[in-house]
Amino acid sequence: MDNPELKTSNKKSIYSALAANVLIALTKFIAGAFTNSSSMISEGIHSTVDTANQLLILYGLKRSKRPPDQSHPFGYGKELYFWSFIVSILIFGLGGTLSIYQGVAHIMKPELMSDPFWNYIVLILSLIFEGTSFFIALKEFNKTRNGMGWWDAIIKSKDPSSFLVVFEDGAAVAGLIIVMVLMGLSHYLQIPELDGLASVIVGLLLVFVSFILARESRSLLMGEGIASETRLKIAQLAEKDSAVIKTKNILSTYQSPEYVVLMLIIDFEDHLDTEEITEAIRRIREDIKNEFEFVHFVIIQPE
């Protein structure tokens, strides 16, 4: 929520993704076991990991809403960033590497696939479920980005749950298409290695997605601050006060997508006494909170 207009997402896309993955994970494993398809087993792993990921994100969202206490005076908002980082590791460790391992093992010891009819049924149903979930996630994310470019919206968003489901579902849809094409070629051309290749490609896709998610979650977990354009706006707002000469520095950190801790070091007019500076600090703090609703705690230090 770096930009005042950049809103956080709701849980609708997470619940839709969870429902889709629960519906299809088991059917993928069953179809893969019956038809001896490596790529279908990899897709089953993918859906299982995605299911666990959505549960962890929901858990992180719940934990992050706990009120402040003595041990955590700024609240528990960073729980969401922690669990988002864990999810990115799971996508890499369980989703990506296991799929790559499964594919390489199938390439090293190829086995002809039996009739892939049921695999196609499962894949088509999965594509419908995943595609629906992806559409819902895109729709929800479009509400948060408010006309911004996709990559800019991801960088500026301080709510990993808003774009995590988009990446997961997008990777799932792409993976399903890859598996359908290569599995069909593998059966038609009688080249079982192509089925293993599909698993490897899906695994590499998941590794790529995990790196993007880990990068964003890590930055937020390590104490990312507000963007430079937001700092400039806050500085200009403070300097409108007649008591202020210049805003010397602004320090900030996101405690959650909707909670920023802000510190301003301000050079006040020399002729002001303590009472006048105190009143100026009160005015500036109030103006900042009114203008930027995500700034909840403001410390102002006279230079």
From TrEMBL:
It holds the Pfam family Cation_efflux. InterPro entries: Cation_efflux, Cation_efflux_CTD_sf, Cation_efflux_TM, Cation_efflux_TMD_sf, SLC30A9. Residues 16-222 form the Cation efflux protein transmembrane domain. The keyword Membrane applies. Its main location: membrane. The keyword Transmembrane helix applies. One of its GO terms (cellular component) is membrane. GO terms for molecular function: monoatomic cation transmembrane transporter activity. It comes from the Bacteria. The chain crosses the membrane at residues 14-34, 80-105, 117-138, 163-185, 197-214. One of its GO terms (biological process) is zinc ion transport. It is a multi-pass membrane protein. Keywords: Membrane, Transmembrane, Transmembrane helix, Transport. It is found in: Membrane. This is Cation transporter. It comes from Sphingobacterium paramultivorum.
